[in-house]
Specification:
Blueprint: H1 10-16, H2 66-108, H3 122-130, H4 137-143, E1 146-154, E2 160-168, E3 184-188, H5 206-213, E4 217-221, H6 246-265, E5 270-275, H7 277-286, E6 298-304, E7 309-310, H8 319-322, H9 327-334, H10 341-349, H11 352-367, H12 379-383, H13 392-399, H14 404-407, E8 426-431, E9 437-438, H15 440-448, E10 455-461, H16 468-471, H17 475-490, E11 521-524, E12 549-552
Parallel strand pairs: 3-4, 3-5, 5-6, 6-8, 8-10
Antiparallel strand pairs: 1-2, 2-4, 7-9, 11-12
């Protein structure tokens, strides 16, 4: 691999001059393990690759010197104080704006039993009220008959990621004649979140439900920096550790997680479920010029609240204030390390229940979220895992000058094609009340330009918000059965199934119950041809094989 020597005092210069000459970028779309960025300039956040647009920032950071450390100290001192004041202002504003409404609902009893379901027995409600609110993934797993195995995954650029494998304790894991267990499923979280989002709804949590009802080997991935994970040779106080955005997540994190699950289970392909940034990262990974060969390792890609096009919420406060900030101004206010360190300090030291409730108020205010579709006594534990640490450079990519909220798209919308035939079968779930992202432009592009993408499902939850695909009180009935069905339709056949040829898609593990009348589901009008062999999908040249859907009040 070619490399360029970088001036050892580049960091200090970067703190002073934003318009310094950019260094050239060398490397292919799937680089071998790079050395520290001070010594090699392979793929990085500072240039575009194929269909991926990057924000304008200074060049790669060099190893800190005494001079640069001193400048960094004062930069971070001011940035931490300023960003903490900004966060406190947001929280106080959020609490003030929502306090009256919450008091009114409480006095009128509007929250009482609003989502009582037959499965939500008195015993289940009592159990939720007595459980601890904690950031311990295993605690929630053991309470409902599961366990998790903690694993560490190293990326090619040296980052250490934390992953969890779900183990169902309620029944013996089925082992097929080839020695392998159930089909693997990888679930990836969104921005500011962690895998904790998928385990806080008791046995109806997405991770636990798929492990039990699909007999799948479920893996929960986490992005770099989450759960205090670090780097093979960089300290968390080193600016180089935080010198990344979604591009590195797409080039290194997801490929590392996918390959880890494949090695751990012995399968060539796995199913992938991504929420928000989790699926935006996968869309970037699969784009031409990035790592499109990753698509050959996926049997299906299920995108929840696809974060490809920006929604109307990104045109309001505080996004309007942030999107005009160039990198030179941004780093003065938010620093070069993690974004608003006060969030990380609060995550570590504030009691989990209080942290979760304050976190909800902040996100509800910023993203216009409501608890209309949630069980209220789950709310504290749902938000005790967020916000999780993320780099300042990442948030700049999403909200800063020429970032996602300005461009309106994670990829280059002017590119003729984003994806090639290696793109896996795609299922999209979106909400009618999700104002963070827009799905209609994505569907339009998929149908008009991305003719190599096989769209097997488009399902809209009319009253759905950004996280309702796994937090909705009826998420099992509205979404999980669809996930299971799409995984079954696209996965390679188990050894015992290869001897018989199915003439219909594989059914779910059990028939879905009828959704509540207030919720809306979708009905298939046309099913694609059944899968005939262990290859997940056979593409037909020049022919679209989409599944058409129709919004209706009747489930299927």
């Amino acid at each position: 691999m070619q490399s360029f020597q970088v001036d050892g005092d580049l960091l200090a210069g970067a703190l002073e001059e934003d318009n310094a000459e950019r260094l050239p970028l060398i490397g292919d779309s799937t680089p071998s393990r790079p050395r520290p960025r001070a010594f090699t300039l392979s793929h990085s956040a500072f240039g575009s690759s194929g269909t991926f647009p990057s924000t304008a920032r200074s060049g790669p950071l060099a190893p800190p010197t005494l001079k640069s450390r001193s400048k960094l100290f004062f930069l971070q001192l001011f940035a931490n104080s300023a960003s903490a004041a900004f966060l406190i202002f947001i929280i106080v504003w959020a609490l003030a704006s929502r306090l009256f409404q919450a008091a009114y609902r409480h006095v009128r009893g509007l929250n009482a039993d609003r989502h009582r379901r037959p499965w939500d027995t008195d015993a289940a409600r009592d159990a939720r009220r007595t459980e601890r609110v904690t950031k311990d993934i295993r605690y929630y797993a053991l309470r409902c008959g599961f366990d998790v195995v903690e694993q560490t995954v190293e990326t090619k650029d040296g980052y250490l990621l934390k992953a969890f494998k779900v183990v169902c304790l309620k029944k013996e894991a089925k082992v097929h004649s080839d020695g392998r267990k159930g089909f693997p499923v990888l679930i990836q979280h969104g921005l500011f979140q962690s895998c904790g989002s998928f385990i806080t709804s008791e046995e109806r949590s997405l991770a636990f439900w798929l492990a039990e009802h699909g007999d799948y080997q479920v893996y929960l991935g986490n992005a770099r920096g989450v759960f205090d994970m670090g780097h093979s040779w960089l300290k968390r106080s080193d600016p180089r550790l935080w010198d990344y955005n979604i591009k590195e997540l797409a080039l290194y994190d997801l490929p590392a997680l996918v390959d880890h699950v494949r090695r751990d289970t012995g399968y060539d392909k796995i199913a992938f479920i991504g929420h928000s940034q989790g699926n935006a990262t996968m869309f970037c990974s699969l784009a031409q010029g990035m790592v499109p060969e990753l698509g050959d390792k996926l049997s299906v890609f299920i995108a929840l609240a696809p974060a490809v096009y920006a929604g109307p919420l990104t045109t309001g406060f505080p996004f309007t204030a942030l999107k005009n900030m160039r990198w030179k101004t941004w780093r003065r206010w938010f620093g070069l390390l993690d974004f608003i360190p006060l969030m990380r300090i609060s995550y570590d030291w504030v009691p989990s229940r209080l942290f979760g409730l304050l976190g909800y108020q902040m996100f509800a205010f910023l993203f216009n979220w409501t608890d209309a579709n949630w069980l209220l006594d789950r709310k504290a534990k749902m938000f005790c895992f967020m916000p999780s640490p993320v780099s300042s450079a990442s948030i700049f990519w999403w909200t800063g000058y020429a970032g996602f909220s300005t461009r309106g798209c994670v990829l280059d919308d002017n590119a003729d094609k984003w994806f090639d035939k290696r793109f896996p079968p795609l299922a999209i779930h979106h909400g009618g009340k999700d104002y963070l992202v827009l799905t209609e432009p994505l569907l339009k592009r998929l149908r008009e330009r991305e003719t190599d993408v096989q769209l097997i499902r488009v399902q809209k939850m009319d009253d759905g918000e950004h996280c309702d695909f796994f937090w909705h009180v009826d998420a099992v009935e509205l979404c999980f059965h669809s996930f299971l069905e799409d995984i079954e339709r696209t996965r390679p056949r188990y050894p015992g199934e290869r001897t018989r040829r199915s003439h219909s898609p594989q059914p779910p593990a059990h028939s879905p119950t009828s959704p509540p009348s207030a919720a809306r589901d979708v009905r298939k009008l046309k099913m694609e041809p059944p899968l005939q062999d262990e290859d997940a999908v056979e593409y037909r040249k020049g022919e679209r094989r989409d599944v058409e859907v129709l919004e209706t009040g009747v489930g299927y």
